[in-house]
Write a structure and sequence with these properties.
- Helix 1 runs antiparallel to helix 3.
- The protein is globular, with a radius of gyration of 21 Å.
- The longest helix has 18 residues.
- Strands 1, 2, 3, 4, 5, 6, 7, 8 and 9 form a 9-stranded antiparallel sheet that branches.
- It is built from 8 helices and 9 strands.
- It has one domain.
- The chain is an alpha+beta fold.
- The structure holds protoporphyrin IX containing FE.
- Protoporphyrin IX containing FE binds next to strand 5, helix 7, strand 8 and helix 8.
Length: 380
């Protein structure tokens, strides 16, 4: 089973081949935490993350070997489990820099990257405050759900009194591939998802579209990225009553192979010129998801998508509370997520089956050097 290094130029969990399971948590820092306390928390999280990602317990004693008169420094449920490629990716929300009422709690306001904008309200947004925002985030991905949950639980335990979970999300069944070595998985609409995603092998595209650079403005973010998370409910009961041809028209690809409706196989580039030739079954609808999300409709902008399916039980009508927990990494949300989502929110045929209920954006700093801590550049 894979073990990924924790320290390095970039944080793991971005171009890392998408693992199958997610536990994502957004945290709010405590009202009385000061700058020194925030730095200490990031130190403690870094140390624990460096250990857990290597398959070791969160603390030096572990769950069952420490002093008997204090609580264990690891909760224990991952004790005999391999890490399953565990990655822990940390991010800083806009409210860490400037609170909603304009306060600069940690002396960081001048360090806020211009690219870390508050996301605008998109047409159709039905955001729930308790599923939105957050001062800090941790994305835990692993092949083993228990390992991912263990990591978030222990980071939350370590943060006790300093930061607490604002919202969190479990995900299963990665809905993207981030490497050509992976087969394309499917989302809960039953379609392949991740076909046209940025892949780690496309190094020039990754440099251009995923990693922030010093010349972008915030020097401390060089080698980092920006994470947009959207909790998107999918009205699957209605979708499931839609005919196959209509489902394919909405997506712009066929359901079996994932090939563009303009023809070819899964990785054939869609031919949107076929749009003009109306009639025949080979045209891609101009309002299909793939057409509107494609770089040719968005000034060349791309995203590294890394989302997961979710089912959070059901509602009292017996409908599954299901959807896609969308995660995308990018160099600048102002040029990437925001224009793409603006276009989708206005015209995407898929909107009839979607409801965006949660939203957040985070600046994901570069990786930490061994001996240092995540986000150190922000406090330099
Ligand atoms: C492509 C599904 C939300 C951006 C696709 C594809 C599917 C899909 C089936 C085609 C396969 C592929 O290339 O991956 C969904 C579902 C969504 C959703 C079910 C919501 C529940 C979003 C959102 C965005 C987005 C919110 C960004 C704002 C993209 C992009 C592509 C894509 C950029 C690739 C287009 C291309 O270059 O051909 N999506 N998507 N999607 N989606 Fe989504």
């Amino acid at each position: 089973a894979a073990v990924y290094p924790f320290y390095g130029e970039h944080q793991a969990g971005i171009t890392t081949p998408a693992q199958d399971r997610l536990h994502f948590a957004a945290f709010d820092v405590a009202a009385d935490l000061d700058r020194a306390g925030l730095i200490e928390l990031l130190h403690d999280w870094t140390a624990a993350a460096a250990r857990m990602t290597q398959g070791r317990p969160a603390g030096k004693y572990g769950p069952a070997s420490g002093p008997l008169d204090v609580p264990p420094d690891d909760t224990g449920e991952a004790l005999d489990l391999p890490p399953g490629g565990l990655t822990l990716t940390f991010g800083f929300g806009p409210t860490l820099f400037t609170t909603a009422d304009g306060k600069d709690r940690f002396g960081l306001a001048s360090k806020r990257p211009e690219a870390l904008v508050d996301l605008p309200h998109f047409p159709g947004d039905a955001l729930i405050d308790q599923l939105t925002g957050g001062d800090l985030c941790v994305q835990a991905c692993s092949e083993d759900p228990q390992v991912a949950v263990h990591a978030i639980r222990n980071l939350s335990r370590i943060a006790f009194g300093r930061a607490s979970i604002r919202w969190s999300q479990l995900g299963f069944g990665r809905t993207s591939s981030t490497s050509r070595s992976q087969v394309t998985p499917r989302n809960l609409f039953g379609f392949k998802d991740g076909t046209a995603n940025i892949k780690s092998e496309d190094t020039a595209v990754v440099e251009d579209q995923v990693w922030a650079a010093a010349k972008d403005g915030a020097g401390w973010m060089a080698g980092g990225s920006y994470l947009v998370a959207r909790k998107i409910r999918m009205v699957i009961e209605t979708w499931d009553r839609q005919q196959l041809g209509e489902q394919e028209r909405i997506v712009g690809r066929d359901k079996g192979e994932g090939a563009p409706l303009s023809g070819g196989t899964e990785f054939t580039e869609p031919n949107f010129l076929a749009l003009a030739k109306s009639g025949g079954g080979t045209a891609i609808d101009p309002d299909s998801h793939v057409r509107l999300a494609h770089p040719t409709s968005n000034n060349g902008a791309q995203l590294l998508r890394r989302g997961y399916n979710f089912v959070d039980g059901n509602d009292d009508l017996g409908r599954l509370n299901a959807g896609l927990f969308f995660i995308a990494f990018q160099r600048d949300p102002r040029a990437q997520f925001i224009p793409i989502q603006t276009r989708l929110a206005k015209n995407d045929l898929m909107n009839e089956y979607l409801r965006h209920v949660g939203s957040a954006v985070f600046a994901v700093p570069p990786g930490a050097r061994e001996g240092s801590y995540i986000g150190a550049g922000l406090f330099a």
